[in-house]
C-alpha cells in the first residue's frame, strides 16, 4: 500500500469493518482451538504466508495447513494453550473489491498449570479477497517487533 | 453451540456487532470502576455465572452482585486496579433473538505504585438476551487458559 | 461526563462506532510508525494533551508534535519499537455533534532483538470533534493505572 491514508477521514463502512473483525475472531479462534485444517480453509488455494523472522514463506493452502498442523501438534504435546489477539485493525479497500488490512497481533501462551506469557507483538498485513459473500486471505505478511532487519519498515 | 460456523461468511450485522462491543466495554468498565452493583445489573435476575477454576457457580443476580462486591472490596483494600479486556468477539445469533457470544478476555492488575501484570487469559462464553432495546447476560461461562482439566474444550 | 450511562441500552450507531475504532487504529499506528508530524495532525490546533503522571499538560498541536517528535527520536536512538493498543471503547455522543470517548490503552515495547514488555495500562478519555467528514482530538486525558493520587477516579 503506497497510497497515503488520511487517518481522520478515510473510513470503510461499518458493515465491512465488522465483517473483518468477525473474520479475524473466527479465523484465529480456529487456530487457537487446534483446528488447523479449518483454519487453513480461510486462505485461498494459492495463498502466500510470510513470517520472515520465523520461517521461509509458505506457498499454497496445503503448505499452510501442514505448517499449522505441525504447530498445533507441538502445542498439544507440550500442553500449551496459545491465544492470538488481533486488534487496531485498518482496512484499505482496493479498486478490485479486495481489501488490504493491517492490524496488530499479540501472541500469548499458557502452559497447563502455568502462567500466561504474552510473548510477541506482530504487525499483520493481509490481502483479503471476496469469496462467496465472505473473505479469504490471499497474502499474509507477519513482521515480529524486535526481529530481523531493524531498517525494515512495519508500515502499511 | 454445536452448529458449525463458516468463519468466512457467517457474519452478524454491523449494528449487532457494534452493540455487543459497546455492551462489553460498558459492562467491564463498571466492574473495573468498582461499581459492582451497576455491574450486576447487566445480568438477568436468574443469570448463572460460572468460572470453574475459581469458584462454584453463582446463581442469580444477587449472588453475582455479592461476589463482585467482595472482589471490589478486596481490590480497594489492597490498592490494586484491575482491568478486564475483551476482544476477538464472535457473535452467534439464536432463533429466539438471543445471542451466543464467545470472546477472549485478559485480566490485568496494577498495584498502586507498582507494575502492570497481565496475569490470565480467559475464554468467555455468554448468552445475551434482548431486554428493553439492549442486552443482558443470562449465562456466562469463563474458562481460564491453563487451568482445570486439560481435556476440557474451550471451543465455542 | 457526568451523565449516567445505561450500559445495556446506550449504544451509538455502528457507523459512528466503526469510525472511532478506525480513527484510533490509524492514529496510534502513525505514532508507532514513527510519524509524529502526521500523528500530531490528528489533533486540533488548540488541542490539550494531558498525561498527569508523566508530564505537564501540552497545549496546542505544535507542543504535541514537538513532544511526540522527541519521544520518537529517543525510541529510534534506543532501537525500541513501541505499540499502543486501544480497546474497550465507549462512545458518548454530545449535543453539539462531538464525541466523548473512553477507552483502555496498553503501551508495550520491544527492543531490537529483545523481549516484548507490556508495561502500562492507561485509561484514555478523548473529546473528538467532527472535521471535514472525520474526527480530530481536541482533548486527551491519559491516566496511568497505579500512578498518581490513588483517590483520583479513572471513571468516565
TrEMBL record, chains A, B, C:
Residues annotated as domain SnoaL-like: 14-140
Presence of keyword Oxidoreductase: yes
InterPro entries according to UniProt: NTF2-like_dom_sf, SnoaL-like
UniProt name for this protein: 3-phenylpropionate/cinnamic acid dioxygenase small subunit
Zinc in keyword set: no
One Pfam family in the UniProt entry: SnoaL_4
One annotated GO molecular function: dioxygenase activity
Organism annotation: Saccharothrix variisporea
Keywords attached to this entry: Dioxygenase, Oxidoreductase
Amino acid at each position: 500500500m503506497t497510497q497515503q491514508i488520511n487517518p481522520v477521514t478515510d473510513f470503510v463502512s461499518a458493515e465491512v469493518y465488522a465483517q473483518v473483525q468477525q473474520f479475524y475472531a473466527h479465523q484465529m479462534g480456529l487456530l487457537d482451538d487446534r483446528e488447523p485444517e479449518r483454519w487453513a480453509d480461510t486462505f485461498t488455494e494459492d495463498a502466500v504466508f510470510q513470517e520472515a523472522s520465523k520461517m521461509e514463506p509458505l506457498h499454497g493452502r496445503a503448505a499452510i495447513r501442514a505448517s499449522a498442523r505441525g504447530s498445533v501438534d507441538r502445542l498439544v504435546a507440550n500442553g500449551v494453550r496459545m491465544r492470538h489477539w488481533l486488534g487496531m485493525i485498518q482496512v484499505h479497500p482496493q479498486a478490485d473489491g479486495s481489501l488490504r488490512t493491517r492490524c496488530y497481533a499479540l501472541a500469548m501462551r499458557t502452559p497447563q498449570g502455568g502462567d500466561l506469557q504474552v510473548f510477541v507483538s506482530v504487525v499483520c498485513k493481509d490481502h483479503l479477497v471476496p469469496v462467496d459473500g465472505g473473505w479469504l486471505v490471499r497474502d499474509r505478511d507477519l513482521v515480529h517487533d524486535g526481529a530481523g532487519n531493524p531498517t525494515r519498515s512495519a508500515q502499511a
